[in-house]
Design a protein that fits this description.
mainly beta; four-stranded antiparallel sheet; globular; 329 residues
């Protein structure tokens, strides 16, 4: 929660559009892709800033589909502790004859093993047909939240169903899904601002709720924790932070400090990084530009934060030899 510069890392690679999107970070290793839609999830970059090593993953079992810009992808990265292996899962949604990405054509799934340094197909993966957001890795699984939809009636349902979370187990390599409770579905239907996070070794969901009382000016950001016991999933409200302006949640620290990108109401081109702890003490790090020039080569569209509390990692380091490899198609 300090603005002191501890260490600066120069990014040793450049994406096609010079924009970056952080997908996941596991044990000090970052999975990064291009932010621009045409290239996002197609070329991937594994980077460990501490050992100054990276890999560029340009191969795929489904290159034909990835070359088709009408397809879309979802990504996740995690650690299989039983196999002592880091893996990346890529879900490729292919249009059916009606032009639907979640229609009759089942999504294609491939997984990359860092140990084997190769992509392989997952047959009959059983991917739920959900339009999903970016996710988070927690305790062996990766989780994605279904995208929000406008509420269509006075119930807790969104377009006829509760919002769901999709999971992928990196050891069994199986997908799963479960519903969010009614109160969380209602909140997300009213307000699309949310972020899946990891807190206290559990899956956490940060949502922007409505003020408790009419006339309150503060905006409550709530942290809900998911617990699983004997196959039963429960959600508990853990924290409630109240801020005066709207913003986008980025991360939560181990001590429960919420990091939020607030938007300047007087100038939409400015954003401020704010820390808010459980005592409602705010630390504002000042405003800076959140949007660059119009050219995509220099624009910055959103921010990502990396939890720097992990130990410095030697992943991607082998005897001082560079592991920068461009895989062949």
């Amino acid at each position: 929660t300090s603005s002191t510069l501890i260490e600066k890392f120069d990014i040793p690679f450049e994406t096609k559009t010079r924009t970056l999107k952080l997908i996941a970070q596991v044990h000090g290793m970052l999975l990064i892709t291009d932010l621009q839609t045409d290239y996002a999830s197609r070329e991937l970059y594994l980077w460990n800033p501490y050992v100054k090593r990276h890999r560029v993953l340009v191969s795929s079992c489904y290159k034909k589909h990835l070359d088709n810009l009408e397809t879309t992808c979802a990504l996740g990265m995690g650690f299989d502790k039983l196999m002592n292996d880091y893996k990346i899962v890529r879900i490729i949604y292919v249009e059916d004859d009606q032009g639907e990405l979640l229609g009759d054509v089942a999504p294609k799934v491939e997984i990359f093993s860092l140990t084997e340094n190769v992509w392989r197909k997952i047959k009959n993966p059983g991917v739920p047909r959900l339009d999903i957001e970016d996710g988070v890795f927690v305790d062996g699984c990766y989780y994605w939240l279904e995208r929000n939809y406008a509420i269509v009636d006075d119930t807790s349902t969104c377009h006829g169903h509760k919002l769901r979370i999709m999971s992928f187990d990196f050891h069994s390599e199986l997908f799963g899904e479960f519903n969010l409770p009614d109160d969380l579905s209602q909140i997300l239907a009213r307000n699309p601002i949310n972020k899946l996070m990891r807190f206290e070794d559990s899956l956490a969901l940060c949502v922007l709720d409505e003020p408790l009382n009419k006339g309150d000016s503060g905006l409550p950001y709530c942290i809900w924790l998911m617990r699983q016991e004997n196959g039963v999933v429960t959600w508990t409200l853990r924290f409630r932070y109240v801020l005066e302006e709207c913003g986008y949640p980025l991360a939560i620290t181990k001590n429960g400090t919420l990091v939020i990108e607030l938007f300047c109401s007087k100038n939409p081109g400015l954003a401020s990084i704010v820390f808010c702890n459980q005592s409602m003490i705010h630390q504002d790090h000042g405003f800076g530009e959140c949007m660059g020039p119009v050219e995509i080569s220099t624009s910055v569209f959103n921010l990502s934060t990396v939890d720097t509390s992990f130990r410095e990692s030697l992943i991607l380091y082998e005897g001082g030899k560079s592991l920068l490899k461009y895989a062949k198609y």
